[in-house]
Amino acid sequence: FVQIMWKYLEQASFPMTEADYFEHLDAVVNYLNGWGSTEKVREFIVTTRDRPRLGKAVSLPLDLGERASEWLLDEL
Question: Could you tell me the CATH number of the domain that includes residue 28?
Fold first, then answer.
């Protein structure tokens, strides 16, 4: 699953600097590209009626196929 959670940079509990946040987004994009899931995620975001809100993430199931175990050991 990819989970999309609502937070924003100026939120008091947001734990990252702007530079850290963009570095994290780059890492997420690299994973999505590696999984071949970029288009599926883009389509899901455009078509879903679910919206993240404080305390609730939107979950997007991803099928990583036979290579799934390669990704389970990495941390984001």
Answer: 3.30.428.40
